[in-house]
Design brief:
Keywords: DNA-binding, Transcription, Transcription regulation. Pfam families: FCD (PF07729), GntR (PF00392). InterPro entries: GntR_C (IPR011711), TF_FadR/GntR_C (IPR008920), Tscrpt_reg_HTH_GntR (IPR000524), WH-like_DNA-bd_sf (IPR036388), WH_DNA-bd_sf (IPR036390). About 25% of the residues are buried. With about 230 residues, the protein is mainly alpha-helical. It has two domains: about 60 residues, Arc Repressor Mutant, subunit A (Orthogonal Bundle), CATH 1.10.10.10; about 150 residues, Four Helix Bundle (Hemerythrin (Met), subunit A) (Up-down Bundle). The longest helix has about 35 residues.
Length: about 230
């Protein structure tokens, strides 16, 4: 029966809803799913939220979108067994933890490089980004783009092209892992206050303070992942 879904991690819930729909209706590869409009009405979600979830499902091969024709069950549309789900979840969580550990190691040196190499103008620009980010955080508004801009700016401020490139690869890898966010409602919310503190430490050009705050920022995300589904 069609019913609205609760907002937990919206993308995760939409993904689960569509996967359950495929299973409950015993749909096979190539079978047609409801249209976007029908799904929106069934789940009471926005077109943007549905589109993002469908993109993720398409990337995983669970659905296939045919322009002008609709959404169809993909080659991996079958619901995973309990064992497969457990293995997938474990690998996903372990990969995220490993990515955070790698990020922690690299960003420890990054903080020192930024303090040594960043210009005063770059510090001013980071301050402007931080101000916009924190306004959104305090207003409880979506802050994904500002959060990305904050970290991107810090990466650039190290003034080392190779280091920047490696950090970007790690960042993109982590983004891909977050496509299925382990049912964590907002894994970055607890870390948000540390962004402003980190900016202040960098502005003061205090390496040890910046490293300590950045570690606390990462600890917040790490803790959410470590306890997920325990």
């Amino acid at each position: 029966m069609a019913k609205p879904i609760k907002r937990v991690s919206l993308q995760s819930e939409i993904i689960k809803y569509i996967q359950s729909y495929i299973e409950e209706h015993d749909l096979k590869e190539g079978d047609r799913l409801p249209s976007q409009g029908q799904f929106i009405e069934m789940m009471q979600v926005s077109r943007t939220a549905l589109r993002e979830a469908v993109k993720t499902l398409e990337a995983e091969g669970i659905v296939e979108v045919k322009n002008g024709k609709g959404i169809f069950v993909g080659c991996r549309g079958r619901k995973a067994t309990a064992l497969e789900s457990l293995i997938g979840f474990t690998m996903e969580r372990e990969s995220l933890i490993e990515a955070l550990e790698a990020r922690r190691a690299m960003e420890t040196e990054l903080m020192a490089m930024v303090v040594r190499n960043a210009t005063d103008q770059e510090m001013d620009e980071l301050g402007e980004i931080t101000e916009v980010l924190m306004k959104k955080v305090r207003a409880d508004e979506r802050d994904t783009e500002e959060d990305k801009a904050f970290h991107e700016k810090i990466y650039l401020m190290c003034h080392n092209k190779v280091f920047y490139a490696v950090l970007k690869v790690l960042d993109e890898y982590t983004d891909k892992l977050w496509q299925f966010p382990l049912d964590i409602e907002d894994p970055f919310k607890a870390s948000m206050p540390y962004h402003e503190m980190l900016y202040q430490a960098l502005r003061e050009r205090d390496i040890k303070k910046a490293q300590k705050i950045n570690n606390k920022l990462l600890d917040c995300v790490y803790d959410d992942i470590a306890i997920a589904h325990q």
